[in-house]
Structures are given as C-alpha cells and as structure tokens.
C-alpha cells in the first residue's frame, strides 16, 4: 500500500515547492513536490546536499499527485543527508529559565517546581525585556551576579554569544513516521519542537522544515558537560517531513512569525499540548545562522535548529514530578506553513540501528551509477 504523505504536508502545499527524501528499493532517493505533484529527482541530484548547492530542484521522474503518497515499498526519510546538523539552545526566555532550573535541581525533576517560582519572579521579567548582548543585558548580568542568581545558561540567553552545538552526526537523523529514542537510563526527558533552517555552504537559508531536538533534562541538569549525552543518542534527532523552499509565497518572515504546535498522546491516555511561538525568540533566526557560521565552513551545507519556547512542566504520574516521556508516546509537531512531523517514542537502545552512514551512502550511489550526481 502506498504511504500516505498528504497528512504531513501543509494545507497550501500545492502553492509551494518542497524537497524530501525517501528510501526506495534502490536506496535513498531525493524527492521534489512542485504544483502538488511528486517527482523523483535522484537521477539529476543524488543527494539533498548537492541539490541545494546546485539549486537543482526541477526535472525528474513524475511519481504522481502528492496526495497519492509514495510508491509501494518506499519509506519517507529525514529530508537531509550530508548536511551538518547544528542546533541553538536557550533562545527563548522560558527555555533559559528551565535550563537554570535543571542546573539548580541537578537533574532532579522533583525539585524543579519549588525552584521554578523563585527564578521566574527574579529572572523572568529581566531576560524577557533585554536584547541579548546589549548594554541593558550587561547591566542585568551584573545585578543577577550580585544577587547570586547568575548561570552559564543566562550567559547564552542574554550575552553576546548564542549557544550553538552539534546535535547529531551526518545522516543520523530520522524522519516523519520513524521512532524517536530516549536513553534507557534517563528519568526526566522531553521533546523540543523547533523550526529547522536549511542552509547551503555559504550560510544562505534556502528553506525550512521542522525538528524534534529530543532532550534529556536529567543528564544536562547534572552537568552542562553532559550536553552531548543529553542530545546525541540513537534516533534522538527527528527532522521533517519535507523542506519548504523559500519563494515569493514563503519567506524568512514566515519563519519569524511561525507558530509550532506540539501534542503528546501517551499510551495510558495522557495528553499534553504546547506551542512554540517564534515571534518570542530572543535572537533573530538569521543572527543564529551567522553565529553558526562564525569562522567555520560547511562544504555540504548545514541545518540549524532554532531552539524552543516549549518546556513541559505539566505533571504526568504524580504531583511535582513534572513531565517525562514513556515508551509509546506519539509526538506530533506541526506548523501551518511547513507541515507535520510525527514520531513514536522508544528507547534509544531499542530503536532501529543506524546503518547508512557516509561510506554506505556513497557505496549505494556508486552501485546505482549516480555517484557523479552527488
């Protein structure tokens, strides 16, 4: 049976242009959706990175109306391949406060509630009212240090330098419909619904998609030096469903004003809803891209998670314990102009093993005779 991708596309998909990837019987294939019609453009652009670098979005084999879904035997993949996967953190005031809570609670969810009220009262209004890196931010920092309220997380929230980190290895992200993983030894974790900017090697943003920057709050809360263990685990990075390319009808301003909605449906009937309002971001998305580039170069391009406003505090099992994932949770992230990304939660140790790394990817293209199109 053909895979239904229509429910992953935005209502106005026929008016936009989208890029994606799917696992076909032959191997990874690059897809284009134009005027509501699905095309396989792999013979012209064998990698998503190459398609973006060369702006090779047209042509290809017509697969039929997008509403008919993928051909039999095809599975939707993350819409990126050779791009580096970068992420920015603490880009919203609420996320800054929650990171400080994690730090002060030392990863103990039970202590979080009592710390939250105190921090919101003393810190919340301040970091909401200043521009990061401004003179006012410097003055606020001095005042908070004097009160003993300073934190490394507030440094990246209101200081001149944003937090930019490597989220996941090349080719390791999962796509719409795949399982996402949390470590089996984590007891406090959550999804992070985000807009993901897609950039070429020069840092030009060519479009946007959605992402789930799955996070282990207990790990990062114990020590910021555990960030890699908190962020980079098997199936802990979900991106998709498709990249919506910028054009006259969809621009960076649509990203700046995007509302990213999240819902979690638990196997026991639990439901949680949240929203990530990009209009409340502390740093402009293009500033985050510039800081990601810095003195670096990404020859195959990169994608950048923009951070999230959403930090679930709703209790799940017992009062004061807050939220954490359970195996079987269905996580849905959606934005009206970008689409819907849906995944089910499992343990990272139980998630399908990541098999197609860079070497396997290149070998596959060579066997298909399209390595010169990469």
Automatic annotation (TrEMBL):
Entry annotated with the keyword Hydrolase: yes
Matches recorded under SUPFAM superfamilies: FAH
Protein name, as recorded: Fumarylacetoacetate hydrolase
GO BP term (any one): small molecule metabolic process
Keyword Metal-binding: yes
Any Pfam family the entry gives: FAA_hydrolase
A GO molecular-function descriptor: metal ion binding
Domain Fumarylacetoacetase-like C-terminal intervals: 204-345
Organism of this sequence: Parapontixanthobacter aurantiacus
Keywords in alphabetical order: Hydrolase, Metal-binding
